[in-house]
């Protein structure tokens, strides 16, 4: 908001995964903000391919800010700490404020995220809501959690709160798939078959849900 008031014509880099609905929704929110405030921003869009070299090339000239969504749909991936660290370092060196949307901040030091703001999904709440939904749907012989991959912090948080919600309700303990659901279809299939039926399964996000549904159908 301060930027909208103090610099009527500003170049703002917007890096979002437009191939996914959440990226489009974030972009629409930015455009709504511009309409409501009358700010004259020139948006420099980074789409589809997101790597260190392209990011550095985009943060040149009269750039006064960066809005960067999750890197999960870009080259390097959401879990590439090197890629995210380089983005933060580039902005810090050039004294450009960065707004990160759905960034995994595990492992970053306070110095690295200085002059940056982050808005992340409440993964703990997501897991509790998933447990609540399955509890309302009926009684299952087992409950499973299909995570993104073992080193994904937000996925672990969702699984932990999901298990806590089931435990609080006195239901069977959640069974976790410990592999990479996105790349190990055979192991995912064996895990799904091992669940006592009927089984209620919570997938970490829509990408994992798609793989789980296709695996079940297969």
Can you describe what's shown?
There is one protein chain. The chain has 8 helices and 8 strands. With 218 residues, the chain is an alpha/beta fold. Strand 6 (142-146), helix 6 and strand 7 form a beta-alpha-beta unit. The longest helix is centred in the N-terminal third of the chain and has 17 residues, at 21-37. It is elongated and about 60 Å long.
Mean pLDDT: 84
- What Rg is obtained from the alpha carbons, in whole angstroms? 20 Å
State the share of residues found in helices, binned by percent: 40-55%
Number of helices: 8
Coarse morphology? elongated
Q: What is the strand tally?
A: 8
Strand order in space, largest sheet: 2-1-3-4-5
Separation, N- and C-terminal Cα atoms:
50 Å
Question: In this structure, how is the largest beta sheet organized?
Answer: 5 strands, parallel
Q: What would you call the structural class?
A: alpha/beta
Order of helices and strands: HEHEHEHEEHEHEHEH
Strand content: 15-25%
Low-confidence stretches: 71-79
């Amino acid at each position: 908001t301060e930027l909208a008031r103090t610099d009527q014509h500003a170049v703002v880099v917007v890096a979002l995964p437009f191939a996914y609905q959440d990226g489009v929704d974030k972009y629409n929110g930015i455009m709504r903000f511009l309409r409501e405030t009358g700010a004259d921003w020139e948006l420099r869009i980074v789409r589809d391919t997101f790597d260190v070299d392209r990011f550095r090339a985009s943060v040149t000239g009269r750039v006064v800010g960066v809005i960067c969504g999750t890197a999960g749909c870009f080259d390097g991936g959401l879990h590439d700490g090197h890629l995210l660290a380089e983005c933060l370092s580039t902005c810090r060196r050039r004294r450009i404020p960065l707004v990160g949307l759905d960034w995994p901040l595990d492992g970053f030091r306070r110095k690295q995220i200085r002059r940056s703001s982050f808005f992340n999904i409440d993964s703990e709440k997501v897991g509790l809501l998933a447990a609540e939904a399955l509890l309302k749907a009926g009684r299952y012989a087992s409950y499973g959690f299909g995570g993104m991959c073992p080193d994904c912090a937000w996925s672990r948080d969702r699984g932990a709160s999901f298990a806590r919600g089931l435990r609080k309700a006195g239901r069977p303990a959640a069974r976790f798939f410990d592999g990479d659901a996105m790349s190990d279809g055979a192991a995912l299939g064996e895990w799904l078959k091992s669940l006592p039926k009927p089984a209620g399964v919570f997938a970490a996000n829509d990408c994992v849900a798609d793989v789980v549904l296709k695996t079940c159908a297969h």
